[in-house]
């Protein structure tokens, strides 16, 4: 996948750091105090510590090991053990192209500036990890139904599929759901579910239960495709 969804924007607040895997590459995502998003290689150039363990200091990210500070360009600006030193400009971290669209954070490690194939004005529902491959979830989705708490059955009707996204219509709720996949190593994947329509609390809960059911079905299917 080229442009990969790595999480909901709302889950990375200002001043916070998170880790993501994009095509098996370890990435640190962080948002400065003012809200600027950055995606970098998750490795400190000093001694290799994961930067996702670090702390946001204003508009910089500080490594937790020896506290080196990196600005939003990935350049080292401050070394606590040598406070008077102007760090060499050669000390820097590999940056990746990242942006936000449809309530999702996207990363493209090829550093292309093209956007994701779809998604505008979607409402984040849930982001969840599946212990199986994307292909298996897609296959379960082709004929998926889930009992609801009201003894009726909720069905997903396949509407469209583009790149890493499956779009389904949910009946009888009458909602359209965008299911965006993020592949992970070791037969795992993330599913980021977003609704094209506003949902009432009850509908939100019903969809969330369906997604739990989808995960159980996908993870327990007995066949050779993990
Ligand atoms: S390993 Fe990051 S500052 Fe030393």
Strand content: 35-45%
The SSE order reads EEEEEEEEEEEHEEEEEH
Q: How would you state the average pLDDT, rounded?
A: 89
Biggest sheet, in brief?
6 strands, antiparallel
**Low confidence ranges:** none
CATH architecture of the largest domain: 3-layer Sandwich
**Alpha carbon gyration radius:** 20 Å
Overall body shape:
elongated
DSSP strand count: 16
Computed structural class: mainly beta
Top-tier CATH class of the largest domain: Mainly Beta
Q: Any idea what the CATH superfamily of the largest domain is called?
A: Rieske [2Fe-2S] iron-sulphur domain
CATH topology of the largest domain: Rieske Iron-sulfur Protein
How are the strands of the largest sheet arranged? Answer: 1-10-9-4-3-2
Individual helix count? 2
Q: What is the helix content?
A: 10-25%
Q: What is the CA-CA span between the terminal residues? A: 19 Å
Q: Identify the bound ligands.
A: FE2/S2 (inorganic) cluster
Count of discrete structural domains: 2
Describe the fold and architecture:
- The structure is a single chain.
- This protein has helices at residues 134-141, 201-220, and strands at residues 4-8, 17-22, 25-31, 37-41, 55-57, 60-62, 69-70, 76-78, 95-101, 104-108, 123-130, 145-147, 153-162, 165-171, 175-184, 188-195.
- It is mostly beta strands and 226 residues long.
- The chain has two domains: 4-108, Rieske [2Fe-2S] iron-sulphur domain (Rieske Iron-sulfur Protein), CATH 2.102.10; 123-220, 2-Layer Sandwich (Alpha-D-Glucose-1,6-Bisphosphate, Chain A, domain 4), CATH 3.30.530.20.
- It is elongated, with a radius of gyration of 20 Å.
- It starts with a strand and ends in a 6-residue tail after the last helix.
- FE2/S2 (inorganic) cluster binds next to loops.
- The site of FE2/S2 (inorganic) cluster has 8 residues, from loops.
């Amino acid at each position: 996948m080229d442009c990969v969804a790595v999480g909901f924007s709302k889950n990375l607040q200002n001043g916070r750091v998170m880790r993501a895997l994009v095509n098996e590459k370890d990435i640190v995502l962080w948002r400065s105090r003012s809200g600027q998003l950055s995606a970098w290689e998750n490795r400190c150039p000093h001694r290799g510590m994961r930067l996702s363990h670090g702390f946001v200091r204003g508009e910089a990210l500080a490594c937790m090991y020896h506290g080196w500070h990196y600005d939003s360009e990935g350049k080292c600006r401050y070394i606590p053990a040598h406070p008077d030193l102007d760090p060499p400009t050669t000390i820097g971290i590999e940056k990746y192209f990242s942006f936000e669209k449809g309530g999702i954070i996207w990363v493209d490690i090829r550093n292309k500036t093209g956007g994701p194939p779809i998604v505008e004005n979607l409402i984040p529902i849930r982001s969840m990890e599946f212990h199986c491959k994307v292909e298996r979830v897609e296959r379960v989705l082709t004929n998926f139904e889930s009992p609801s708490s009201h003894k009726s059955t909720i069905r997903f009707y396949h509407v469209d599929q583009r790149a890493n996204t499956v779009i389904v219509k949910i009946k009888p709720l009458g909602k359209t759901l965008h299911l965006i996949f993020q592949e992970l190593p070791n037969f795992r994947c993330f599913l980021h579910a977003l609704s094209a329509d506003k949902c009432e609390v009850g509908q939100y809960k019903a969809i969330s239960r369906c997604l739990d059911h989808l995960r159980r079905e996908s993870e327990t299917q007995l066949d050779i495709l993990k």
